[in-house]
Amino acid sequence: MTESQVSSNYRWVILALIWVVYFAFGLILSSIPPLVTPIANELALTNSQIGFMLGNVMLAYIPLALPIGLLIDRIGTRKSTMIGITLISLSGFLQSFATSLETLSLFILIFGMGGPFISVGLSKVVASWFSGKERGTASGIYLTGAFVGGATALAITNTLIMPLTGTWRNSLRFYGLVGFLIALIWLLLGREAQTHSTSSTSIPLREATTRLLKEKLVWIFAIIGFSVGFASYGLGRWLPRILELNGMSPTEAGFLSSIPGWCGLIGSLIIPSLTKPSQRKSVIFIVLLVQGICVFTIGVSIGLPLIMSLIFYGISSSATAPLVIVTLMDMPKIGAKYMGVASGILFMLVAVGGFIGPLIVGFLADLTKSLIPGLITMTVLVEAMLIFMLLMKEKRKD
User: Fold this and answer.
1) How many domains are contained in the chain?
2) Choosing a second label site near 178 at 20 to 30 A (CA), which of 171, 208, 288, 346?
3) CB 257, CB 34: distance < 8 Å
4) CA separation for the pair 328, 139 (Å, rounded)
5) What is the pLDDT along the chain (398 residues), one digit of tens a residue?
6) Is residue 198 one of the residues assigned to a domain?
7) On the CB side of 88, how many CA atoms lie within 13 Å of its CA?
8) Rounded to whole angstroms, how far apart are CA atoms 278 and 254?
């Protein structure tokens, strides 16, 4: 077997590795929401402060996503992924030592510093190792890692980890150690794609950004990214608390909160792989429509309607990212060469929405003594994106 054949086959090992890395990302990111009640009680936090804490992880994304996208294009994905997984694991571990809102927010910010290396960088890993139809499949597969990681944290934190470790602090330390173990695995097995060349990617940030921002589709998806980030983080970070306030125990709330993550496997794997390029606009329109409706119904329903809303929300919300990412990859003026910066633009707007969403939900809850206004705000914002999808033109090419 030739060296090129070995490298070609190794792309599936790389895909498995970045799935595990994204699993750690989702696991550590979602470790806080099921622990909101004991954390808020011990640190005496208001709803607005809880909202700030839940959205604070996105603060560092906002200024860093774009320059980190360019840095990834220059230093390569092996180094950048190692930096990212190390920082988010360190953040998860340090959060367990927080003594106030300020110290907890500071430690969460470290996750925000490492996060862009993962969320931005892994899309470039796929663009560098895969081509053609495999890109859509690979994008759908690796993105499920975050869904599974997040769902795992929500499902097992209050049912298994807290009883075993005894406190919310020890639970966070456990998740941090899991992240460090995965960082070691990447250090030993991670590789750079042969197509990577620093000489071909040393494009100034201003030049690359200006080039990409001339593309209308980049603007459209960036705005959609903001609204989806607002809703997904606004709902996802508050979901266990929402369900607890509706009368559920922490264990029940954690289990039900994990349903969108498990159902995200369907949306992330199946929908992008079955969607032809000419169908992406219509499919994105449908998943945004369903996602917006479910955001509201999750907060106002109980029993079977609640469960169905969680299922359909998980399927629809998880399909959005891979569809958008693979569409950007396939644009002739982006491809693997500019994917780092393009992803940086996209995730920067997702980060802005991801920070504002939980904060607005908490602020409106303190103002109105109800979570319903926040749910309505998220629903309206997502459904407004349907207008952009109707205005978007696409090439009919399968």
Assistant:
1) 1
2) 346
3) yes
4) 12
5) 444 444 568 888 999 999 999 999 999 998 988 898 899 889 988 888 888 887 777 777 778 877 887 788 788 889 999 999 999 999 999 999 999 989 998 999 899 899 889 987 888 888 788 877 677 678 778 878 888 898 899 889 988 999 999 999 999 999 999 999 999 999 999 888 775 444 444 556 566 666 666 777 777 888 888 888 898 888 888 888 888 888 888 888 888 988 888 888 888 778 877 777 777 788 888 999 999 899 999 988 888 899 999 999 989 888 887 787 777 776 766 655 666 677 777 777 888 888 888 889 888 988 888 888 989 999 999 999 888 888 766 544 44
6) no
7) 32
8) 39
Q: Report CA-CA distances (Å) from 127 to 88, 355, 393.
A: 23, 28, 24
Does 397 map to a domain? Answer: no
- Domain around 333: 3-192+205-391
Q: What's the CA gap between 285 and 273, in Å, rounded?
A: 17
DSSP string, 276-343: -GGGHHHHHHHHHHHHHHHHHHHHH--HHHHHHHHHHHHHHHHHHHHHHHHHHHTSTTTTTTSHHHHH
- CATH at residue 68: 1.20.1250.20
Asked whether the CA dihedral 124, 129, 134, 138 is positive or negative, the reply is: negative
Q: Are 276 and 398 in contact (CB under 8 A)?
A: yes
In eight-state DSSP terms, residue 371 is S
Domain membership of residue 398 (yes or no) is no
Residue type, 311: I
Contact 81, 119 (CB under 8 A): no
Spell out the alpha helix ranges (H) of the chain.
Answer: 3-29, 36-43, 47-55, 61-75, 77-94, 101-119, 121-129, 133-156, 162-165, 168-189, 198-201, 205-213, 216-245, 250-257, 259-274, 280-300, 303-329, 339-368, 372-391
In the chain, how long is the greatest CA-to-CA distance? 67
Q: What is the pTM of this model?
A: 0.74
Q: Which amino acid is at 126?
A: V
> Quick one: angle between helices 259-274 and 133-156, nearest 10?
170
Rounded to whole angstroms, the Cα distance separating 3 from 270 reads: 32
Cβ neighbours of 259 (radius 10 Å): 22
CA distance 180 to 78: 16
Distance of alpha carbon 13 from the chain centroid: 22
